[in-house]
Design brief:
Layout lengths: L9 H39 L13 H20 L4 H29 L16 H16 L11 H19 L23 H32 L3 H28 L4 H23 L7 H32 L5 H30 L1 H17 L5 H16 L5 E3 L11 E6 L5 E6 L7 E3 L6
Antiparallel strand pairs: 1-4, 2-3
């Protein structure tokens, strides 16, 4: 009896094909997190051996760890939702390479300096424990080169991408073949993978060329974003605005971290500011590629500025009221705090509206103009009785405020209307009840708005 061929369900195959990238992405993310307890365990062993200066998990390493974990998380989300977009996988590689660098560094130090020959292959990894940092820097450059479209800015950039890849490979190999990779921690250690002495000068030169190329690659990649932004239009330009905002906020946070360190602020303030600085760019990259609230960016900026200014002004006002009343009332009087709190609460809403209007006028002009147009149309609507004129004005307002590619207004057909005009009670914007007359229009009547905008 001949066996029947079982048909392959294409839908099930497609589901499995979509599921594998998700499983792989979150599996790599889990590996990034699982490396943390192993690094912590090795750190404890190094501290017990009086080598605490070689421990990785120190407060100074907090910004880099925050950036790596943020990059891995954003990369997992991107890779699971957009598996064909390379930036998600590159962000995952950034997180993994940083954790591999930490793990390999502790493993090598513990296996060579604390327990010689006690950990398998520790001596062979001595030349590779810096490879994670090298790969991480290269991936950061490619993230900037490929964001937000997933492709290079133009085909002419391919030669530069090949140069960066070649420099990364050369730098990893030169570090792996170095005779004394543990300098200055243990200058007597000889790597089993060391190249012949005749090649030492060539390896040193290759390493210098690789480092310079990678650092120049970061600057070139940052410049590629500027080139993209100047050429971009429409959706791509909106995506790049997310990155521009994140870069500006990162610069501000970095300045805060540097200023806090110079002024002797607590270490926690410095580390938090530095962590925010390095973690913002992966978040902005993910938001730009996933197109998260692209067209709300002006509103986000204006609201952030408005509430920031409001907080500063209300704080200054509260302090001024407290200082002023403390001169008139006893210092321990509870009326000072109560009066200052009531004054700030009373001024909150008027100050918020006024500051929001000022900020919108400067940073969110489109929303401000739209609000002014709607306000003027609402005031004119109370006195308009001509249905044809009202229709034209309504479409003009929609075109000015929403800027659609096409606008149409359909009125109720004649057959659906009642024989007589129906009088309906409604409320205007002030809450007063008014009467309006609904007048039917001929069936199928459509009024189109302005021609499409570019």
């Amino acid at each position: 009896m001949a066996s029947k061929a079982v048909p392959v369900d294409s839908t099930a195959q497609a589901g499995r094909a979509r599921r594998w990238p998700t499983v792989l992405a979150w599996g790599l993310w889990a590996l990034t997190l699982l490396a943390l307890p192993v690094v912590n365990w090795l750190d404890q062993r190094l501290r017990q051996a009086d080598l605490s200066e070689l421990a990785i998990l120190e407060p100074a390493a907090f910004p880099l760890a925050a950036a790596a974990l943020t990059a891995a998380t954003v990369g997992a989300v991107l890779a699971s939702r957009r598996p064909h977009h390379p930036v998600g996988w590159l962000l995952l590689a950034i997180g993994l390479s940083q954790q591999f660098s930490n793990l390999a560094t502790d493993y090598v130090h513990y296996g060579v300096m604390v327990r010689p020959d006690g950990l398998p292959a520790a001596s062979y990894l001595t030349g590779f424990y810096n490879s994670g940092t090298i790969v991480m820097v290269a991936c950061i450059g490619f993230v900037m080169l490929l964001t937000p479209t997933g492709s290079l800015p133009s085909p002419r950039w391919r030669w530069w991408a090949r140069v960066v890849i070649a420099a990364t490979v050369v730098l990893v190999l030169s570090a792996a073949l170095t005779p004394h990779p543990l300098e200055p921690e243990d200058p007597t250690f000889q790597s089993p993978l060391a190249a012949p002495p005749a090649l030492s000068d060539l390896l040193a030169l290759a390493g210098i060329v690789g480092v310079v190329t990678l650092l120049v690659g970061l600057l070139v990649a940052a410049g590629s974003l500027v080139v993209r932004f100047r050429r971009a239009r429409g959706l791509e330009r909106q995506q790049l605005r997310w990155l521009a905002l994140a870069a500006a906020l990162s610069a501000v946070a970095l300045l805060v971290a540097v200023a806090s360190a110079v002024l002797g602020a607590p270490l926690g303030v410095v580390l938090v500011a530095a962590g925010i600085s390095v973690a913002l760019l992966p978040l902005a990259t993910g938001a730009a590629i996933l197109r998260y609230r692209l067209y709300d960016l002006d509103r986000i900026i204006s609201r952030t500025l408005a509430y920031g200014l409001l907080t500063v002004l209300l704080g200054l006002g509260y302090g001024a009221v407290v200082l002023g009343l403390s001169r008139l009332l006893p210092q321990d009087s509870s009326l000072v705090v109560a009066a200052a709190t009531l004054a700030v609460a009373a001024a909150f809403q008027p100050a918020r509206r006024r500051i929001q209007q000022l900020v919108d006028r400067r940073f969110n002009r489109r929303r401000y103009d739209a609000a002014q147009t709607i306000t003027a149309f609402s005031a004119h609507l109370r006195d308009q009785v001509d249905l044809d004129g009202l229709t034209g004005e309504l479409l003009a307002v929609v075109d000015q405020t929403m800027q659609p590619t096409r606008a149409s207004l359909w009125l109720r057909p004649q057959a659906a209307a009642t024989a007589t005009d129906a009088t309906a009670a409604h409320h205007d914007s002030a809450g007063n009840e008014r009467d309006s007359v609904a007048r039917p229009a001929p069936a199928g009547r459509s009024l189109s708005g302005a021609p499409p905008k570019e």
